Amino acid sequence: MFWYKGITRISEDKCRRNILEDPESRTFRGTIEVKFPADPGCHEEDFRMELIHYGKTIERTFRMVLGGSPVLSEITSDPRDPHYGQSVTLRCQVTGDCDPRDMAVKWLKGDKPLEKGEGAEKRITEKDGSVSCSLQITATALDHRGSYSCSVTHEGKTLRKKHYVHLPDKAPTLSAITVRPERPVSGKEAVFTVTISGFTPDIRVKWYKDFSTFPRDAITTSDPEIGQDFLFTCSTSLRFTPQDSDHEALLRCEVTHTASKKFHEQKYKLLLSGGTSTSAEEHRSLYTQDSGHVKPPVKLRGIRCLTETPRVGGEVSLTCYVGGCDADNTVFVWRKGMFPINGKIQNQNLEDGSGCVSTITFIALESDRDCRVTCETTYNLETREEHLALTLQ
């Protein structure tokens, strides 16, 4: 048998047992006590008795309340599950046989006292002598998984209750990639920018050229600020100097939302001034869905969506090019998230012998919105993956 004050075990010399055996039933009964001098640090402290019998643990807990000291209730929230932009009232009731005029009350956000304008505080003395302390705030992304505390100081001792605001995770929305100058020129620096909005913490941002990641010093992501929707908004920019060999390269901004584990991306086909390009319609014409035949010399990099406007409930066709292997000896696995896609798969070699393509056609479901599609290929014991964030209308 053990006694604890909070998480600290009380020494056995302060504990006393008075256990007696009933001779008729051969069972035991009695009391176990702990004796110590009470001090202000004992107020609202949990004392716990732990009894272990044949491997089974029995616990009893007692919260000590000292006379003349305030007692704080748990903080309540109205509404309990607010929306972003909604007014929220946090309330803590202070009771106990002490004079309310001797109490100093303040609210904290995290571990810091509220600054001016961060919330409207109110303190009302009820008829029964208790004090109702309230704080009114407007819920924003700054409050996501954050806490507020009501702190009461009386006769030099401070008591505190903490409350976490229940706010939902919000994944970001990405704007299209904008570029300055509008038509980049080989050998001159260009800036590519994406606006990221409507999200709660945290996000990770990466930029790619085809399959290569840009270094961090080429990327600038602004600090998130609260937007008109009371959620975070920021922008990310890529600065780099394209060369002639970068003409028609695919630039990609990838944003991963940590809380929801959702993946979003925007793509931009780099067309340098004075270069030749292939239109999106010409890209689509390189593949005939009926026959699965690929005209030479196509080298599509990564996963491409062949369906012009993919919609929930409609057929969606995706294709993936893999260089340096042939369809007969390559294993293709298509997945949505962690699960295989139930669809029709066609694998074909390119006529110039440079590689092969795999195409899958399936019916898009509501759950497929913003899902991450993966095409996994295995050739000569080497496995690689291509990814696409599927956006549905």
Automatic annotation (TrEMBL):
Chain ranges of the Ig-like domain: 70-166, 172-264, 296-391
Keywords: Immunoglobulin domain
CDD domains linked to this entry: IgC1
Protein name, entry field: Ig-like domain-containing protein
Organism of provenance: Engystomops pustulosus (Tungara frog)
Lineage: Eukaryota, Metazoa, Chordata, Craniata, Vertebrata
